[in-house]
Structure formats: structure tokens, C-alpha cells
């Protein structure tokens, strides 16, 4: 097999790592808030969080261009305040990965938090423990297996993002060329060997991630059953 430029692999890993980091922080905050608060419009807010799961990637990409484009409200703010653009950059690819990965991570974290027995947290509160310490020493450790599974799925989804990434980041070899874009444009150019090479790479990453998540869930289920 011919030697290929591996920049799409490194760019995909960078995009997935950065988007997963922000997905981790935001989903923890959202899930914690949603499990502890009951308010008017909660179902509507949750529907907005999960909306990227059912929207076509082109719709997500169009929305990102409207927000982060040259004339978009967030695009103008970022260029004026921080001096960089999102459209046609790898940052745009990271934002697209963030948007499509957030619902997966949010669902995993929310389910993990809901499984934590509130009696443990209530006992700590009666002892005067702060909410942050309760979260750090009780809630987070007990929910860790679900959080970790969500992280793996979000990372794998971030690597595989295509449609929204193409719309907001475009295809610029060496700049915004992630693995999914490399596959598509190699196929368009009739370079089936190159397309197959990247298909095998991204498929291997996906299989490894799902296998690990399944192994971890079974291992956790066995441990809980023993306890």
C-alpha cells in the first residue's frame, strides 16, 4: 500500500480531543443541572440539547454558518474580540464535532447521575459538606463508569463527523482535511485505494472504542452484581 500523508489522522485526533474536552465540561454541567432542578420548559430545553441527534448534518452545518459565519453574531464577536475566524478553519471542525457529540455525552452523563442514590448525597449535606465537595467525592466517582462510556462515544463521534464539518470548515488539504473528508474527496477523485485506507483507519478506531465501552459496561455490571 502506498504511503499517505497522515495529516488527516492527526487533525481528526486534535479536533476530537478538543471537542470532547468541551463536551465533557458542558455535559457535566448540563446533566447536573437537569437532574437537580425541575422548572417550566425543562422538557423543551432538553429537546434542544438532543436536537442534533435527529437533524440532518447539513442543517447543523447551516446553523453553524449562520452563527459563526463572517456576518454571523458569534463570528463577528470572535473576530473582533479574539482575532480569529471559525469558517474554513480547523476550529470550525472542532465546533461541528462538539455540536454532534454533545447529545451522546449528555445522555450518558444524565443516566449515570440519575443512577446515583440521592441518600448518599443527603447524608453528606446533613453533615454540612459543600455541594462542590459532594459532587467531587460522591456523585462523580459513583457515576464515573457512565461518564467514561459517554466520553469514548463522544470522541468516536467527533472523529467521524462529516456533513456539518464540510459546511463550516470546508475542504482545505492540510488545514481542514479530517479523515471523513479525506475519504469523500479521495472517492470523488477515483482514488479508491486511498479512500479504503482511511475507511480502515476510522473503522478501526470506531470498533476499538465500541469494544472498549462494551467491555467496560460488562465489567462494571459484574462488579456491581458482586457488590
Automatic annotation (TrEMBL):
Stretches that traverse the bilayer: 12-35, 47-70, 90-113, 134-156, 195-216
GO cellular component assignments: plasma membrane
GO function terms (MF aspect): molybdate ion transmembrane transporter activity
Domain of life: Bacteria
Domain ABC transmembrane type-1 span(s) in chain numbering: 9-211
Keywords for this protein: Cell membrane, Membrane, Molybdenum, Transmembrane, Transmembrane helix, Transport
Primary location recorded for the protein, binned into one broad class: membrane
Protein's cellular compartments: Cell membrane
CDD domains associated with the record: TM_PBP2
Membrane topology: Multi-pass membrane protein
Family: Belongs to the binding-protein-dependent transport system permease family. CysTW subfamily.
Function according to Swiss-Prot or TrEMBL: Part of the binding-protein-dependent transport system for molybdenum; probably responsible for the translocation of the substrate across the membrane.
NCBIfam families (alphabetical): modB_ABC
Official protein name in the record: Molybdenum transport system permease
Organism: Planococcus halocryophilus
Source organism phylogeny: Bacteria, Bacillati, Bacillota, Bacilli, Bacillales
Amino acid at each position: 500500500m502506498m504511503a499517505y500523508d497522515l495529516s488527516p489522522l492527526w487533525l481528526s485526533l486534535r479536533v476530537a480531543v478538543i471537542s470532547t474536552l468541551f463536551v465533557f465540561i458542558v455535559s457535566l454541567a448540563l446533566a447536573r443541572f437537569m437532574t437537580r432542578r425541575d422548572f417550566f420548559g425543562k422538557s423543551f430545553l432538553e429537546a434542544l440539547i438532543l436536537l442534533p441527534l435527529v437533524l440532518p448534518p447539513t442543517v447543523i452545518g447551516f446553523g453553524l454558518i449562520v452563527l459563526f459565519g463572517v456576518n454571523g453574531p458569534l463570528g463577528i464577536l470572535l473576530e473582533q474580540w479574539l482575532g480569529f475566524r471559525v469558517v474554513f478553519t480547523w476550529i470550525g471542525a472542532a465546533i461541528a464535532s462538539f455540536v454532534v457529540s454533545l447529545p451522546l455525552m449528555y445522555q450518558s452523563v444524565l443516566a449515570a447521575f440519575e443512577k446515583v442514590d440521592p441518600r448518599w448525597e443527603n447524608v453528606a449535606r446533613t453533615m454540612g459538606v459543600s455541594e462542590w465537595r459532594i459532587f467531587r467525592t460522591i456523585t462523580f466517582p459513583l457515576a464515573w463508569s457512565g461518564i467514561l462510556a459517554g466520553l469514548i462515544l463522544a470522541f468516536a463521534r467527533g472523529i467521524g463527523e462529516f456533513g456539518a464539518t464540510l459546511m463550516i470548515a470546508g475542504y482545505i488539504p492540510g488545514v481542514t482535511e479530517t479523515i471523513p473528508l479525506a475519504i469523500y474527496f479521495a472517492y470523488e477523485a477515483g482514488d479508491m485505494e486511498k479512500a479504503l485506507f482511511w475507511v480502515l483507519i476510522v473503522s478501526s478506531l470506531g470498533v476499538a472504542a465500541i469494544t472498549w465501552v462494551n467491555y467496560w459496561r460488562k465489567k462494571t455490571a459484574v462488579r456491581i452484581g458482586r457488590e
